[in-house]
């Protein structure tokens, strides 16, 4: 599933590709992706005639800002957007097409078919349940160490599932949680209330540094992720823990291991990230 760096990259790409374009009509071949309004004809009619003003990101959600409405889109496992000329052949698994008045198209392709789109009036966005319950943005200026420490107070569960919880902090998924915990030398099964003040500071900085570095590299192309121009991310070349089980740790040379934490494959160094007793 695309995480914050990948969705941020898609956002930035779409800003350059579709802002200012006017939607002439919308074609939906897989109705369940167009989640709301539930009436497909209404979903399409609300979009027709709208001009894209901006593209924003909230956690792992894209927000396509138009004249009167906002399209809230979640890519889920393998959703991807691309801009094409109208006469270019359709790729398999293209489920939604936004036909622009200038003869180009924004196409949404999703092999796994898990992605979602919701069309909302601008005044409804802040109250949309999927967005309203999200935690703070880890790369925002207002996300300070003090705020992070406040969020951690009273937390006693394992640190990895906590960081994966989008109501706690948004945008972190399996890749970047593994990388941040590795950078901070914290075992993924460490209880949150066992982390010292210094460890919390190290983890806070590791989260921000890891995400920022990944954004600068256009994200990580582990499976099928590409941005809106079909380009791969390059941060996978810098991964220190995720997907590297059986390889030597770049810090100590010990063999990296894989375990399962809260149902998620988890990569770590048993020497650098010792589990607290």
Automatic annotation (TrEMBL):
<feature type="active site" description="Proton donor">
    <location>
        <position position="3"/>
    </location>
</feature>
<keyword id="KW-0234">DNA repair</keyword>
<keyword id="KW-0326">Glycosidase</keyword>
<feature type="domain" description="FPG-type">
    <location>
        <begin position="240"/>
        <end position="274"/>
    </location>
</feature>
<dbReference type="GO" id="GO:0003690">
    <property type="term" value="F:double-stranded DNA binding"/>
</dbReference>
<feature type="binding site">
    <location>
        <position position="155"/>
    </location>
    <ligand>
        <name>DNA</name>
    </ligand>
</feature>
<keyword id="KW-0511">Multifunctional enzyme</keyword>
<comment type="function">
    <text>Involved in base excision repair of DNA damaged by oxidation or by mutagenic agents. Acts as DNA glycosylase that recognizes and removes damaged bases. Has a preference for oxidized purines, such as 7,8-dihydro-8-oxoguanine (8-oxoG). Has AP (apurinic/apyrimidinic) lyase activity and introduces nicks in the DNA strand. Cleaves the DNA backbone by beta-delta elimination to generate a single-strand break at the site of the removed base with both 3'- and 5'-phosphates.</text>
</comment>
<dbReference type="InterPro" id="IPR020629">
    <property type="entry name" value="FPG_Glyclase"/>
</dbReference>
<dbReference type="InterPro" id="IPR010663">
    <property type="entry name" value="Znf_FPG/IleRS"/>
</dbReference>
<feature type="active site" description="Proton donor; for beta-elimination activity">
    <location>
        <position position="60"/>
    </location>
</feature>
<keyword id="KW-0456">Lyase</keyword>
<dbReference type="InterPro" id="IPR012319">
    <property type="entry name" value="FPG_cat"/>
</dbReference>
<protein>
    <recommendedName>
        <fullName>Formamidopyrimidine-DNA glycosylase</fullName>
        <ecNumber>3.2.2.23</ecNumber>
        <ecNumber>4.2.99.18</ecNumber>
    </recommendedName>
</protein>
<dbReference type="Pfam" id="PF01149">
    <property type="entry name" value="Fapy_DNA_glyco"/>
</dbReference>
<keyword id="KW-0378">Hydrolase</keyword>
<dbReference type="InterPro" id="IPR035937">
    <property type="entry name" value="FPG_N"/>
</dbReference>
<dbReference type="InterPro" id="IPR010979">
    <property type="entry name" value="Ribosomal_uS13-like_H2TH"/>
</dbReference>
<comment type="similarity">
    <text>Belongs to the FPG family.</text>
</comment>
<dbReference type="InterPro" id="IPR015887">
    <property type="entry name" value="DNA_glyclase_Znf_dom_DNA_BS"/>
</dbReference>
<dbReference type="Pfam" id="PF06831">
    <property type="entry name" value="H2TH"/>
</dbReference>
<feature type="binding site">
    <location>
        <position position="93"/>
    </location>
    <ligand>
        <name>DNA</name>
    </ligand>
</feature>
<feature type="domain" description="Formamidopyrimidine-DNA glycosylase catalytic">
    <location>
        <begin position="2"/>
        <end position="115"/>
    </location>
</feature>
<keyword id="KW-0479">Metal-binding</keyword>
<dbReference type="GO" id="GO:0140078">
    <property type="term" value="F:class I DNA-(apurinic or apyrimidinic site) endonuclease activity"/>
</dbReference>
<comment type="subunit">
    <text>Monomer.</text>
</comment>
<dbReference type="GO" id="GO:0034039">
    <property type="term" value="F:8-oxo-7,8-dihydroguanine DNA N-glycosylase activity"/>
</dbReference>
<dbReference type="GO" id="GO:0006284">
    <property type="term" value="P:base-excision repair"/>
</dbReference>
<dbReference type="GO" id="GO:0003684">
    <property type="term" value="F:damaged DNA binding"/>
</dbReference>
<dbReference type="Pfam" id="PF06827">
    <property type="entry name" value="zf-FPG_IleRS"/>
</dbReference>
<keyword id="KW-0238">DNA-binding</keyword>
<feature type="active site" description="Schiff-base intermediate with DNA">
    <location>
        <position position="2"/>
    </location>
</feature>
<keyword id="KW-0863">Zinc-finger</keyword>
<dbReference type="InterPro" id="IPR015886">
    <property type="entry name" value="H2TH_FPG"/>
</dbReference>
<keyword id="KW-0227">DNA damage</keyword>
<feature type="active site" description="Proton donor; for delta-elimination activity">
    <location>
        <position position="264"/>
    </location>
</feature>
<feature type="binding site">
    <location>
        <position position="112"/>
    </location>
    <ligand>
        <name>DNA</name>
    </ligand>
</feature>
<dbReference type="InterPro" id="IPR000214">
    <property type="entry name" value="Znf_DNA_glyclase/AP_lyase"/>
</dbReference>
<keyword id="KW-0862">Zinc</keyword>
<dbReference type="GO" id="GO:0008270">
    <property type="term" value="F:zinc ion binding"/>
</dbReference>
């Amino acid at each position: 599933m695309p995480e914050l760096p990948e969705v941020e990259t898609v956002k930035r790409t779409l800003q350059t590709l579709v802002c200012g374009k006017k939607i002439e009509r919308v074609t939906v071949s897989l109705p369940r992706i167009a989640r709301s309004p539930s009436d497909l004809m209404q979903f399409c009619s609300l979009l027709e005639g709208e001009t894209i003003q901006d593209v924003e990101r909230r956690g792992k959600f894209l927000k396509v800002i138009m004249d009167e409405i906002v399209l809230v889109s979640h890519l889920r496992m393998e959703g991807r957007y691309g801009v094409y000329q109208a006469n270019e052949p359709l790729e398999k698994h293209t489920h939604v097409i936004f036909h622009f008045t200038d003869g180009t198209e924004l196409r949404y392709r999703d092999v796994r078919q898990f992605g979602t789109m919701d069309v909302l009036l601008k005044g409804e966005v802040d109250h949309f349940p999927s967005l309203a319950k999200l935690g703070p943005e880890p790369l925002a200026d207002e996300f300070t160490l003090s705020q992070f420490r406040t969020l951690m107070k009273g937390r006693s569960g394992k640190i990895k599932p906590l960081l994966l919880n989008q109501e706690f902090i948004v945008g972190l998924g399996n890749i970047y949680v593994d990388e941040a915990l590795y950078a901070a030398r914290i075992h993924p099964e460490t209880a949150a209330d066992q982390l010292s003040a210094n460890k919390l500071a190290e983890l806070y900085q590791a989260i921000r540094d890891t995400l920022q570095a990944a954004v600068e590299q256009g994200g990580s192309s582990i499976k099928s992720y590409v941005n809106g121009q079909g380009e791969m991310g390059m941060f996978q070349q810098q991964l220190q823990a995720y997907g590297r089980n059986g390889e030597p740790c770049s810090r100590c040379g010990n063999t990296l291991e894989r375990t399962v934490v809260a149902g998620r494959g988890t990569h770590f160094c048993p020497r650098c990230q010792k589990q607290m007793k």
